[in-house]
Design a protein that fits this description.
This protein is mainly beta. The protein is built from 1 helix and 9 strands, in the order αβββββββββ. Strands 1, 2, 3, 4, 5, 6, 7, 8 and 9 form a 9-stranded antiparallel beta sheet that branches. The mean pLDDT is about 75.
């Protein structure tokens, strides 16, 4: 009967343990379609998320101190997406950026001077950053079929918001809000609303 103290048996068990750990470490980043995190703390929390594919990319960073609750869901189900929510009694710092390719195929050309169909693929980007005291911040991003997003914040602080689209139909927006605030910003590009 084999003994657990047998060096040969321990040697093989150690190899299988290393193989199992290696498979788990490789399966996470290569096969994960969803990452979900919930953190409640009375200290500090920092959370970063970034992802990219052929349609676009996003990155977000959040830092909260004192009592706070952070919830994040990120995944790739035929398109990148992220939902992020932070509520806290102290300061919450956040920074988010997302960009995506836009296809204008199937949309009729507006300019009478253009004699070729508008099949140009442009790009769109949206960003938000700021600091909020004693309130909350929530955002939702989807990077497929263009770019869509929603940002909401309340509390006291300052926020920079902006978005832009480059291509045959270009525009650029930007804003700054400070003081006691309640902000909701929504953007959708690449599809008709």
């Amino acid at each position: 009967m084999p003994s657990w103290h047998n060096p040969l048996l321990f040697k093989w068990r150690g190899r299988w343990a290393l193989i199992a750990v290696a498979c788990l470490l490789l399966a996470g980043p290569l096969c994960a379609d969803l990452i979900a995190t919930t953190i409640s703390t009375d200290g500090s929390v920092m959370l970063k998320t970034s992802a990219s594919d052929e349609n676009g990319s996003f990155t977000s960073r959040i830092l909260s101190r004192d009592e706070s609750q952070v919830t994040r869901t990120a995944g790739d189900d035929n398109g990148l997406y992220e939902d992020l929510a932070v509520r806290g009694s102290g300061q919450t710092l956040f920074s988010e950026y997302a960009d995506a390719l836009l296809s204008t195929r199937g949309i009729k050309t507006i300019c009478a001077f253009l004699d070729t169909p508008d099949t140009h693929e442009g790009n769109a980007a949206a960003y938000s950053s700021g600091i909020v005291q004693g309130g909350g911040y929530a955002s939702s991003r989807t990077i497929s079929q263009g770019l869509s997003g929603r940002t909401a914040a309340n509390g006291t602080g300052l926020i920079f918001l902006g978005s832009e689209s480059q291509g045959n139909r270009s525009f650029k927006t930007g804003g700054f809000i400070s003081g006691n605030l309640s902000v909701e910003d929504m953007m959708t590009y690449g599809v008709k609303i």
